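Module 6 notes. Inverse folding takes a fixed backbone as the condition and produces residue identities as the prediction. Think of it as a translation problem where the source language is geometry and the target language is the twenty amino acids. Below is one complete input and output pair. Work through it position by position during the lab.
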């Protein structure tokens, strides 16, 4: 397992780098496999990242029609990233799943905060690329050795 830390001077730059990495992984997967399988955390800390994903003009090229997406994590009622992304992305509803309601396939990319408490163990060896959008909160550090694939941590510099 390889870990790469991408440090950015500000929040906007960090989110730009992470969304560009996500779209690059998506197109690589579609080119090589014909589809892109993505797992997304429902963590509140990712709300700004998901807003970028839906609103940034550069992200309009995201190939939603060729994607399957699994959402994971606790979410209160109807306030969820799953609802927001599914509604605004145009992804086919048949390709959107809750991780706790279905068996996950091998996924190409998982977006999370790096909080070990949020990560479902069924993803540990089933994900090729991890995009950890680390807000620098005081939390337990993710032991990336427990994950398969490559871990890219996106942090803001101090």
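Target side of the pair, the amino acids:
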């Amino acid at each position: 397992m390889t870990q790469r830390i991408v440090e950015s001077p500000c929040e906007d730059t960090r989110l730009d780098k992470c969304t560009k990495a996500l779209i690059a992984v998506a197109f690589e997967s579609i080119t090589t496999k014909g589809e892109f399988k993505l797992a997304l955390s429902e963590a509140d800390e990712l709300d700004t990242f998901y807003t970028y994903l839906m609103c940034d003009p550069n992200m309009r090229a995201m190939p939603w029609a060729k994607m399957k997406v699994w959402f994971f994590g606790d979410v209160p009622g109807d306030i969820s990233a799953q609802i927001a992304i599914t509604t605004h992305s145009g992804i086919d509803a048949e390709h959107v799943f809750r991780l706790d309601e279905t068996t996950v396939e091998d996924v190409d990319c998982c977006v999370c905060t790096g909080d070990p408490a949020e990560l479902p163990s069924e993803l540990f060896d089933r994900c090729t690329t991890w995009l950890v959008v680390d807000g620098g909160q005081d939390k337990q550090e993710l032991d990336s050795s427990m994950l398969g694939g490559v871990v890219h941590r996106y942090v803001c510099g101090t």
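Reference fact for the lab report: The longest helix spans residues 11-33.
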